[in-house]
Design goal:
With 386 residues, the protein is α/β, with parallel strands linked by helices. Helices cover 43% and strands 23% of the residues. The model has no long low-confidence stretch (mean pLDDT 94). The structure holds adenosine-5'-triphosphate and magnesium ion (MG). Pathway: Cofactor biosynthesis; thiamine diphosphate biosynthesis.
């Protein structure tokens, strides 16, 4: 009997036209996440991935595999020869291991991939059920609402398992195009990136800093956040652009209360160029309706006006506390709350406009040489592969 981990993928994923590519993407993402922990090898058998590794590494491996989108379940399975005797013994082993401490109801659930196997699924379910009832006094059968299931997959070998870990769900990365996340150093944007990646988008990140007005640490923090995010999104490009000159020009030539809106519009214009050049199809932000002055409908539409791409805002209807909870779950929260000023906080006006009008914003922009400023900012770009 050999212990293995098996990974099953979501249904949608298996039906798509690009199944093979998505499957391979998910596999390489899993391998990238587990390579530091160590495993022996992997193989694929009828749509499931099997991972050979020593059992004491299972927990650590599962934790990393759980971060890959498109996965329905991760199971701890026991592989035996395809004969009734070995199958029954394996089911007994599984029950002994997990369910010997108190009374339980159970049901057996066979999937017969190898149709030539001598017992069909209902028959094997019965044989296993009767056998376990004989062997264990603490078990009873409940086919509608069992405490646990014993799964038996009949393939080239038999796989017996019961302990199931739910995957993250979602769609495999790459199945929904490529986007550019506007990644600040805050709590919200990494969560927004996570959510779009969960729907299969390949997420890259752009960060705007204002060195030397903002510190090197603030910049490093954004890069660290991108790194933390990458265990979910897979490898990504991290663009960083210096906005300090733009902030200076805004401060000298425009009303102070418009600073945030004006700078956001520059972020969009710069992002337009990057998206054009690298083929990204949409922007992603961490905006949430009403959270701050720049996140009113009026502000959002004035900001959006300077974007040539759809702006996706996965957090738009989510309360701050729920976003915080999510950021704790995905492991970015501690990094996000490190106290380094970003450009928004340094240049933020005391009384920002909450209901900007496009025509007044455009009038203020008339005092700026927009094309030159955008071009000069793009010349400061640094690209880091994460
Ligand atoms: P976050 O927690 O993501 O910083 P926030 O609540 O601080 O968001 P804002 O500062 O209004 O909200 O920013 C709204 C969104 O604009 C951010 O979620 C992010 O997508 C984008 N953004 C803001 N500042 C920057 C920046 N310096 N670089 C890149 N994107 C930014
Ligand atoms: Mg912020």
């Amino acid at each position: 009997m050999e212990a293995l981990l098996s990974v099953s993928f979501g249904e949608l994923f298996l039906k798509g036209a690009n199944r093979k590519t998505f499957f391979n993407n998910a596999l390489s993402h899993i391998i990238a996440n587990i390579k530091d922990i160590g495993y022996e090898n992997t193989y694929v058998e009828s749509a499931k991935l099997y991972i050979r590794a020593s059992e004491d590494k299972f927990d650590a491996l599962i934790k990393e595999i759980e971060k890959v989108f498109g996965i329905a379940y991760i199971d701890e399975v026991y592989k035996v020869d395809k004969n009734l005797d070995d199958i029954l013994k394996a089911t007994k082993y599984v029950v002994n291991k997990y369910y010997s401490d108190k009374d339980y109801s159970f049901k057996s659930q066979t999937t017969r991939v190898d149709k030539s196997f001598e017992y069909d699924s209902p028959k094997l379910n019965h044989l296993v059920g009767d056998y376990l009832l004989d062997e264990f006094d603490n078990l009873s059968v409940d086919i509608h609402n069992p405490d646990f299931k014993v799964y038996i997959d009949i393939k080239s070998n038999a796989y017996i398992y019961s302990k199931r870990h739910k995957g993250l769900g979602g769609l495999p990365i790459g199945s929904s195009g490529q986007g550019l996340l506007l990644l600040s150093g805050g709590i919200d944007s990494p969560v927004a990136g996570f959510m779009m990646a969960k729907r299969g988008m390949k997420v890259n990140a752009i960060h705007f800093h204002s060195y030397p007005f903002t510190s090197k640490q603030a910049h490093q923090k954004a890069e660290d956040l991108a790194k933390l995010m990458s265990t979910y999104t897979g490898p990504l490009k991290f663009y960083s652009v210096n906005l300090s000159n733009i902030y200076k020009e805004i401060a000298t030539n425009c009303p102070r209360e418009e600073t945030t809106i004006l700078s956001r519009r520059f972020m969009m214009r710069i992002s337009n160029e990057i998206a054009d050049k690298y083929g990204y199809q949409a922007f992603v932000t961490g905006e949430s309706l009403g959270q701050v002055a720049s996140q009113t409908l009026e502000s959002m539409s004035v900001i959006e006006d300077s974007s040539n791409f759809p702006i996706l805002r996965p957090l738009v209807a989510i309360d701050k506390q729920d976003i915080v909870d999510l950021s704790k779950e995905i492991g970015t929260y501690e990094k996000s709350i490190e106290p380094f000023d970003d450009c928004c906080s340094i240049f933020a006006p005391d009384k920002p406009v909450t209901k900007p009008k496009l025509k007044y914003i455009e009038r203020s922009e008339g005092n700026l040489d927009i094309d030159r400023l955008v071009k000069e900012a793009i010349d400061t770009i640094e690209i880091i592969e994460i």
